[in-house]
Structures are given as C-alpha cells and as structure tokens.
C-alpha cells in the first residue's frame, strides 16, 4: 500500500471514529495525535483538518449531486471517503483529480459494499467535472474539542442494494 493511501485510510479512520462518537468531523484528531500510536502523519492531519474546515460545503455538494441518496442514508465509510475525495479534488492542488478519485474508489473496494466503488467513482467524477463552476467558500473555524454534533445526524445504516438505486 502506497504511503498516501495509508494516510488517507488513517484520515478515514479518524473521520469515521469522530462521526461514530457523535463529534464534529475530526473531533477525535486531538486524541489520536496525543496517543500517537501509530503516529499520525502530517498528510493525514491535513486531510482531517481540511474536511472539518470545509464540512458544510462538502456535505452540501454531496447532497446536491448524490441523486436519491441523502448523506444519512449512505454507509458511513462511503460518506467519509467521499468527504476526503471532495476535499482533495477541490482544495488539494498537489493531488490530481483522477488520483483522488482512484484512491477513494480503491478504499471503497477494500472497506465498503460491493456497490460502493461505482457510487464513489460516479459522485467524485461529477464533482471533478463541475469544480470549475463552483464558488469555494472560506474554511469555517473548527472546534478543536470536537464537541459540536455532526449536522447530518446519525450514521446511516442503509446499505446499497436495499432495493433502491443510488
């Protein structure tokens, strides 16, 4: 596994944990940095902090383009992979869009449902296609304590294949 792939997976773990505990995006990052076992790479920190700083805009974009799948219906792994992918596509100038998409799809293959890679690929490809038309807002201040509850509610439990198309 390539280094940045590991860093993305670690960012996914932190975002997933934060959401599972009802904290804001990245709300467990400080804990992971304090424990530092395994060490948290600066790239992971940048992804988590970036997703947290742009969470509202990222989630609004995902909601708008995820045809018939609200954020709370998506598997939590997909939701957080998409957040990382959108962050990299829109804000990480050193990551080509195809790389951000490919990395998210590969992690979806490894960690999520059978339908997830196609869904993640399609949604991130759409974001990449329209990014030149988007007006990117300023990052929001992030509460380092992670105390603020996630705006989109509890983690979704519906998995793809429950009879509805994504």
Describe this structure as you would to a colleague.
The chain has 166 residues and is mainly alpha-helical. The protein has one domain: N-utilizing Substance Protein B Homolog, Chain A, CATH 1.10.940.10. 57% of the residues lie in helices and 0% in strands. The radius of gyration is 15 Å and the shape is globular.
Summarize the structure.
It contains seven helices and no strands.
Q: What percentage of residues falls in helices of 4 or more residues?
A: 55-70%
CATH homology superfamily name: NusB-like
Principal-axis shape equals globular
- Structural class of the secondary elements? mainly alpha
Give the number of helices: 7
Strand content: under 5%
Distance between the termini: 29 Å
Number of strands: 0
Main pleated sheet: none
- In CATH, the architecture is Orthogonal Bundle
The CATH topology is N-utilizing Substance Protein B Homolog, Chain A
| Gyration radius, in Å | 15 Å
Could you state the order of secondary-structure elements as H and E? HHHHHHH
Round the mean pLDDT to the nearest integer and report it: 84
Return residue spans where pLDDT drops below 50 for at least 5 consecutive residues.
Answer: 147-166
How many independent structural domains? 1
Specify the CATH class.
Mainly Alpha
Keywords: RNA-binding, Transcription, Transcription antitermination, Transcription regulation
GO biological process, one term: DNA-templated transcription termination
GO molecular function: RNA binding
Function: Involved in transcription antitermination. Required for transcription of ribosomal RNA (rRNA) genes. Binds specifically to the boxA antiterminator sequence of the ribosomal RNA (rrn) operons.
């Amino acid at each position: 596994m390539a280094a940045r792939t590991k860093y993305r997976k670690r960012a996914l773990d932190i975002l997933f944990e934060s959401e599972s505990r009802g904290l804001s995006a990245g709300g467990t990052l400080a804990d992971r940095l304090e424990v530092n076992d395994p060490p948290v790479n600066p790239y992971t920190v940048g992804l988590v902090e970036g997703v947290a700083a742009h969470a509202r805009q990222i989630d609004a974009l995902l909601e708008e383009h995820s045809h018939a799948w609200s954020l709370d219906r998506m598997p939590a792994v997909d939701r957080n992979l998409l957040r990382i992918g959108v962050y990299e596509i829109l804000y990480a100038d050193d990551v080509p869009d195809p790389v951000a998409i490919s990395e998210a799809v590969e992690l979806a293959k490894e960690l999520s449902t059978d339908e997830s890679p196609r869904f993640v690929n399609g949604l991130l490809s759409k974001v990449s296609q329209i990014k030149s038309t988007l007006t990117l807002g300023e990052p929001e201040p992030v509460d380092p304590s992670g105390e603020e509850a996630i705006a989109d509610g509890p983690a979704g439990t519906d998995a793809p294949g429950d009879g509805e198309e994504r």
